[in-house]
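Bug: token stream looks shifted between consecutive jobs. Job 1:
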Amino acid sequence: MRGALFIDSNPHQYTMKYLNAATVFTLAALLSLPMTLSAEEDEETNGDNVDRTVTVEATDFKFGPKKIEIDASTTLEIVLVNKGNVAHSWAIPELDTYSDRIQPGKETSITLNPDPGTYKIACQVPGHEQVGMVGKLVVGEADSDDEDDEDEEGDEEDG
């Protein structure tokens, strides 16, 4: 009974443990609040400058989507998500635009505002471009290759 008497004689002992845990939790939540607000402000600022965001998945060894079409004068944000098993990157060498090389499960982003034209996209990890990890960015009107593809498909349906 002495243990029961001890608990009854000092009921604040357990209240203090719970109070300390609650204080630590509240303090941790308050300390993370400014960082959360900063991140949201950064996203809003970036969002004001971006006309279109495209998420590109990098797998072994291709991009999805492989082709991106945007209107001229569009500020484009590319979010590259590595869903593969090895490191990948996303680049348009003609525009001197290169993402960071990212490991599996990671992501990175780049923002660009390209002039009208058709640009080759490629993974810059050695050997990846050579095995077909490429894509195309079309800015403005569709490139002539696409128009030829549509004409060929139309001819097949007629014949």
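Job 2, same session, no restart:
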Amino acid sequence: MKIQIITLFLATMTTGLMAGIFFTWTNAVTPGIGKLNDIGYLRALQSMNRVILNPVFYLVFMCPILTLPLATVLNYKSAPSLVFQLLLVASIIYLLGVFFITVQGNIPLNNLLHKNDLDGFSLEDARNLRNKIETKWNNFNLIRTITSSISFIFLIITCVIITK
């Protein structure tokens, strides 16, 4: 099997998985924990953020960051120009809208949350911390949901073109 096909398959599969994770958080997780009181919200977000950081998540998160640009480069001359263009756009959208937003947006907010021991928090402290995190985190995650989904759609289109 050609390396271009393997790389495209891995990029498509893991981009789709990440789009699904981001969609689930946007559609169900954050609205659900958003209904909790301030300390409950902070504890839930803190717990979920700690649990999701595991080897399987890291593998799935990092795979598109590596395989999207690799698939783009590998298909530069060997595929129709539309395939290359779709892969290039999918890569740029994903790297900016998922990786950059995660590193510059979500991770600093997660770190802000994690450096706080919530056990001694007053109601005011909890409200202030939640106000610093919730809306920004949710907006960043919405960006990741949209951009990963667009990248996934471009990858599906690319797969369809290649199989014709």
